[in-house]
Amino acid sequence: MSVLELVNVSKHFGAIHAISDVSFSLEKGQVVGLMGDNGAGKSTLVKMIAGNFRPSEGAIRMDGADLVMHKPVEARRHGIEVVHQNLALCDNLTAAANVFLGRELRRGVGPFRILDYAAMYKRAGELFKELKSETRPRDLVRRMSGGQRQAVAIARTRLSDAKIVLMDEPTAAISVRQVAEVLNLIRQLRDQGITVVLISHRMPDVFDVADRVIVMRRGRKVADKAIATSSPEEITGLITGAIEKV
Predict the structure, then answer these.
(1) pLDDT of res. 196
(2) Is 183 left (phi over 0), alpha (psi -120 to 50) or beta?
(3) Pairing between strand 212-217 and 220-226?
(4) pLDDT for position 88
(5) Cα 225 from chain centroid?
(6) What is the CB neighbour count within 10 angstroms for residue 192?
(7) What is the pLDDT of residue 188?
(8) What was the pLDDT predicted at 79?
(9) How far apart are CA 157 and CA 81, in angstroms?
(10) DSSP of 125-155, one letter per residue?
(11) What is the pLDDT of residue 12?
(12) Does the keyword Secreted apply (predicted)?
């Protein structure tokens, strides 16, 4: 079942055509790898889905209706969450405080409302358990490994009952053990029926966890294939231009 559809989407910045006539759909509970060289249009494409940019042409549709977004908070209301490459975490805060940053739980009445730390620790712990992560709610982020930090960022997306999670280079600059941990987190999201778009330069990671791979080159989609019917060699050829299109 399709949760989001891009129909002939283009994005122009003056005379620069960053994205040209791109169409594809995202299916429920599927991991989709988004690959391409630097400048291929991946970031612009993701920013349109995330509400940062509006398409110059074409349409983004959810549940059959056109989705018109002017800012990222509107995308969040529609169940679209982003895990940025820098994770946007506060190192001096606990895991739970980062999960609820900007969406803190409070208790009390009227002007006498205070932060409900117990409820936030409890809910954060439940989210980490759902993700099968060893991250603990009271741990400080500055003492965490790369994989644990990813768990905090991913847990944050679960607060809003996300339908789609866009992940930007989640396995960049972390150890082999932590890469395995992050890929397991992605599988946990998929198993919960959440669609994951994995933007990555790491071919082994995409082939390990993705169901499909979409390849961008010079602002155009040159492939949209099931992982089972492709190979790293073919995808490399599509990224570099050695293979024109499939």
Answers:
(1) 97
(2) alpha
(3) antiparallel
(4) 85
(5) 19
(6) 12
(7) 93
(8) 94
(9) 6
(10) HHHHHHTT----TTSBGGG--HHHHHHHHHH
(11) 95
(12) no
- Reported pTM: 0.89
Name the maximum alpha-carbon separation found in the chain.
65
Give backbone dihedrals phi and psi of 42, rounded to 5 degrees, phi first. -60, -50
Cα–Cα dist 111/120, whole Å: 20
Cβ-based burial of 208 (10 A; exposed 0-12, middle 13-18, buried ≥19)? middle
Which of 3.30.1300.10, 3.40.50.150, 3.40.50.2000, 3.40.50.300 would CATH assign to domain 2-240?
3.40.50.300
pLDDT digits (tens, 9 = 90+) for 24-56: 999 999 999 999 999 999 999 999 999 999 999
Which residue reads 């946990």 in tokens?
Answer: 188
| Residue 178 structure tokens | 């932590």
Residues of the chain with pLDDT under 70: none
Cβ-based neighbour number of residue 122 at 10 Å = 14
- The answer for 89, left when phi > 0, alpha when psi is -120 to 50, beta otherwise, is beta
The CA-CA-CA angle for residues 84, 67, 86, to 5°, reads 5
pLDDT score of 240: 94
Exposure class string for 146-156: b at 16+ Cβ within 10 A, else e? bbbbbbbbbbb
Q: For residues 221 and 234, what is the distance between their CA atoms, to the nearest angstrom?
A: 15
Task: Say what the pLDDT of residue 112 is.
Answer: 84
- What pLDDT, on a 0 to 100 scale, did the predictor assign at position 87? 84
Whole-angstrom CA distances from 153 to 68, 182, 185, 222, 243 are: 26, 11, 11, 31, 36
How far apart, in Å, are the Cα atoms of 40 and each of 29, 46, 76, 194, 242? 26, 12, 25, 26, 15
The domain limits of the chain are: 2-240
